[in-house]
């Protein structure tokens, strides 16, 4: 069994054409199989974190063929970052597990190009993350970044997170990961049933799923499921204090504003599971495009 592999990253950086050529199946529109899914499981907390291991066990028990391709170390907050080094270290510590010394995006890129070479997975699941990825947190989330890397290559993806809008408590958050991954199994079953041999999700669309922590022990059942959007606020505000020697001390303050109606923050705050559709290209839609067209009309170089 190979324990370590060094892969040149020239073909992996920023979704280059070389990557698309390495794994052409990833860019091909995929339909849902009638039976269990082949799932690439990643995260940003590291390949051996509780959330990804619980997801692996539960998805496997549900009959799916699950392979972990995830960061070797904690990569929280890396967003959609991908490395630009000329090589990357990859370990294969056990069957069905690959640990990539890079970001979630690097992990997904390696998984599609090498682990699933020529036969892309049916679904990429990223998580479950320790803590929420709602509002502005989602923009900078490595968990969401891993899902975005899959969407860029044409593979359906779900980002999965566990936590409320307050600072996560280790014990209750880990406990809440069990109902989170149970919900993920039910969600995937629903997508398969509704696909009817078609797509699991619309082309280019992924899901950012946030499961609240319910009950004093975190093991409670969520109050419901809501289709939401990413709240526009960023409630984590950096605070800088001048040390007087050219360095600045950095801390983070929580400044939570009232949640937008129908947003992920509102749902999670009310104990409901937030399911937010997302895409990978950050386009704002035809209405905003028309508005900007009007704003720049008549401008000349």
Structure description:
By secondary structure, the chain is an alpha/beta fold. It has one domain: 3-Layer(aba) Sandwich (Stationary-phase Survival Protein Sure Homolog, Chain: A). The protein has helices at residues 17-22, 50-61, 104-115, 135-140, 142-152, 170-195, 264-269, 286-296; strands spanning 4-7, 38-42, 65-71, 88-94, 97-100, 123-130, 157-162, 205-211, 225-227, 236-242, 248-254, 273-279. Helix 2 (50-61) runs parallel beside helix 6 and helix 3 runs parallel beside helix 5 (142-152). The radius of gyration is 20 Å and the shape is globular.
Name the descriptors.
301 residues; alpha/beta; Stationary-phase Survival Protein Sure Homolog, Chain: A; 10-stranded mixed beta sheet; two-stranded antiparallel sheet; 8 helices; 24% strand
Number of helices: 8
What's the architecture in CATH terms?
3-Layer(aba) Sandwich
Return the string of H and E elements.
EHEHEEEHEHHEHEEEEHEH
Biggest sheet statistics:
10 strands, mixed
* Outline: globular
């Amino acid at each position: 069994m190979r324990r370590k592999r060094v892969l040149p990253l020239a073909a992996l950086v920023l979704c280059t054409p070389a990557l698309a050529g390495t794994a052409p199946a990833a860019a091909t529109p995929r339909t849902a199989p009638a039976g269990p899914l082949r799932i690439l499981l990643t995260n940003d907390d590291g390949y051996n974190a509780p959330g990804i291991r619980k997801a692996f066990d539960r998805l496997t028990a549900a009959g799916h063929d699950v392979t972990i391709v995830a960061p070797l170390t904690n990569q929280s907050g890396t967003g959609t970052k991908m490395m630009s080094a000329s090589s990357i270290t990859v370990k294969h510590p056990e069957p069905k597990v690959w640990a990539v010394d890079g970001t979630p995006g690097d992990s997904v890129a390696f998984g599609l190009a090498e682990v699933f070479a020529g036969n892309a997975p049916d679904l990429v699941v990223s998580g479950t993350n320790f803590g929420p990825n709602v509002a502005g947190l989602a923009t900078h989330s490595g968990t969401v970044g891993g899902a975005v890397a899959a969407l860029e290559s044409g593979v359906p993806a779900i980002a999965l997170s566990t936590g409320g809008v307050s600072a996560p408590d280790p014990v209750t958050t880990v406990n809440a990961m069990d109902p989170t991954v149970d919900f993920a199994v039910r969600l995937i079953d629903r997508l398969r049933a509704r696909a009817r041999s078609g797509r699991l999700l619309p082309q280019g669309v992924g899901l950012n799923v946030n499961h609240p922590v319910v009950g004093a022990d975190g093991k409670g059942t969520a109050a419901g499921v809501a289709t939401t959007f990413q709240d526009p606020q960023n409630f984590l505000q950096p605070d800088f204090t001048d040390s007087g020697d050219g360095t600045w001390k950095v801390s983070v303050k929580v400044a939570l504003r009232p949640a937008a109606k129908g947003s992920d923050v509102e749902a999670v705050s009310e104990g409901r599971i937030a399911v937010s559709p997302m895409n990978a290209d950050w386009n704002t839609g035809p209405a905003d495009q028309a508005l900007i067209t009007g704003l720049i009309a008549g401008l000349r170089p």
